[in-house]
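Figure 3 (text version): structure tokens given as input.
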């Protein structure tokens, strides 16, 4: 199997697994307990927290969560005032603000251009004094474009609002601008385990709780932490720090090889600025379901894994102006640290050839 779906999830780093195993097999103490085994578990959690925090800029606190969806929900629901966000955000943001809008909270959803980027002049007009929160994704999970986060954060602060950055796809790969007040991340997008994420909160920012209970975790988040998941997350984050330049160079090489092989295909979204480990491509008239069926030993995606069961075409692709047919003729190729050059080029050649065979058959 050739795995080309890095935006959905990344392979677990062997080093992260090794860090988790002792806590899964031998050490079962609750990290919130005061006895010696509990304190040992707590110490492992804090080592992980420090490693995760290293990838954030500025002064703030890291609170572990069950994943980025919880972190985003907490950041949005824990604030007050009107919200401004973008039409191409993840469902964890868009569905949350829609639910709040139904309860009476004012929400403005800004469009993006055909390149996937927000128009800052439009954003400036929408982010008015009295806005409570501006939320935007650093790297889009479907098309890989990088939003002007620093400029959006400046607009938010000028209006007296907080700025939330969904950095799930960019964390450890793209620098997180200093102006963010809240940042949501996920372990399994950086070769860590599934089931754990984090919310970074700038010092001085206060959030209402999302979960009510013991308030055990930083910033009052309730619930018992898993030392195993924390340890795996911490090691994965440390490796993103250590390997950043190596991983970046590898992905840049894979990106160029991919572009060279995709002549005749259209790349959805801006080529620059873009995280190069994400290629969302289309060929008009392509039967994506058939393509995936014909290439069952190549794992790629027709869009966000989080919406794969909805039956809807991608809201991100429709948001950049694609027709329903064009959106349904698009596939997402994602690669990274553990993707070999030869396996990628062979898989792309097969995708191109299989798609061409469809046209001949038609």
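Below: residues designed for each position.
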């Amino acid at each position: 199997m050739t795995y080309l779906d890095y935006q959905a999830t990344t392979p677990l780093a062997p080093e992260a697994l090794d860090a988790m195993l002792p806590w899964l097999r031998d050490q079962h103490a609750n990290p919130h307990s005061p006895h010696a085994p509990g304190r040992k578990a707590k110490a492992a959690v804090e080592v992980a927290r420090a490693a995760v925090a290293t990838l954030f800029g500025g002064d703030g606190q890291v609170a572990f969560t069950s994943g980025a969806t919880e972190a985003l929900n907490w950041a949005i629901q824990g604030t007050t005032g009107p919200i401004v966000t973008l039409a191409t955000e993840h469902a964890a943001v868009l569905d949350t603000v829609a639910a709040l809008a139904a309860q009476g909270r004012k929400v403005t959803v800004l469009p993006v251009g055909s390149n996937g980027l927000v128009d800052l002049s439009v954003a400036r007009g929408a982010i008015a004094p009295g806005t409570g929160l501006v939320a935007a994704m650093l790297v889009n999970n479907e098309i890989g474009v990088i939003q002007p986060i620093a400029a959006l954060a400046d607009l938010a602060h000028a209006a007296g609002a907080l700025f939330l950055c969904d950095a799930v796809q960019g964390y450890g790969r793209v620098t997180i601008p200093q102006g963010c007040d809240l940042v949501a991340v996920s372990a399994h997008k950086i070769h860590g385990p599934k089931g754990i994420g984090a919310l970074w909160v700038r010092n001085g920012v206060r959030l209402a709780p999302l979960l009510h209970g013991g308030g055990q975790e930083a910033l009052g988040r309730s619930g018992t932490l898993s030392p195993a998941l924390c340890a795996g997350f911490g090691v994965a984050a440390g490796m993103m720090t250590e390997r950043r330049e190596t991983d970046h160079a590898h992905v840049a090489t894979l990106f160029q090889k991919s572009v060279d092989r995709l002549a005749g295909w259209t790349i959805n979204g801006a080529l620059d600025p873009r995280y190069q480990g994400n290629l969302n491509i289309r060929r008009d008239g392509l039967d994506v379901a058939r393509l995936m069926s014909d290439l069952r030993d190549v794992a790629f995606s027709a869009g966000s894994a989080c919406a794969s069961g909805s039956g809807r075409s991608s809201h991100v692709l429709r948001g950049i102006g694609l027709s329903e047919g064009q959106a349904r003729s698009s596939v997402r190729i994602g690669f990274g640290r553990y993707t070999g050059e030869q396996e990628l080029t062979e898989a792309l050649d097969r995708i191109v050839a299989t798609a061409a065979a469809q046209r001949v058959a038609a």
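The mean pLDDT is 95.
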